[in-house]
Amino acid sequence: MGEGWRWRSAGGALLRVVVVWAVSTLTLLALAGILPDFQLRSDNGESITWTAVAAAWGAGAFGLLSALVWPLVVRAFLLVPALVLGLLVFFLNGSLLLLALRLIPDGSGAAAPETAVVVAAVMSAVASATSTALAVRDDNAYRRRLSRLATRRRGRHAQPADGETPPATVFLQLDGVGHAVLVQAVKDGLMPTVARWLETSHRLTRWHTDWSSQTGASQLGILHGSNHDVPAFRWYEKDTGRIMVSNRPASAVELQRRAARRTGDAGLLSLDGASRGNLFTGGAEQLALVLSAAARRGRANRSRAGYFAYFSDPANAVRTAVSFVAEAGREIGQSVRSRVRGDRPRTRRGGLYPFIRAFATVVERDVVVAAVMGDMLAGRTSVYADLVAYDEVAHHSGPHSRDAAKVLQRIDRAVALMAKVAEHAPRTYRIVLLSDHGQSPGETFQDAYGLTLKDLVRAGCGLPVSRRAGRTKSGAEARDAARHALLGALHRPMGDDAAEERPSPGPEPIVLASGNLGLISFPDLPGRLSREEIDRRHPALLHTLAGHPGIGFLLVRSERHGSVLLARGGDGTVEIPLAGLDGSGPLAVFGPGAADAVRRTDSFPHAADIMVNSMYDPDTGRVHAFEAQIGSHGGLGGEQSHAFLLSPLELSEPVPGGGEPVGAEQVHTVLRRWLDECRGEPFGPQVPLRQTEDHPPPGRPEAALPVAGHDLPEQKD
Question: Taking Cα atoms as reference points, which of 213, 212, 292, 221 lies closest to residue 253?
Answer without folding.
Answer: 292
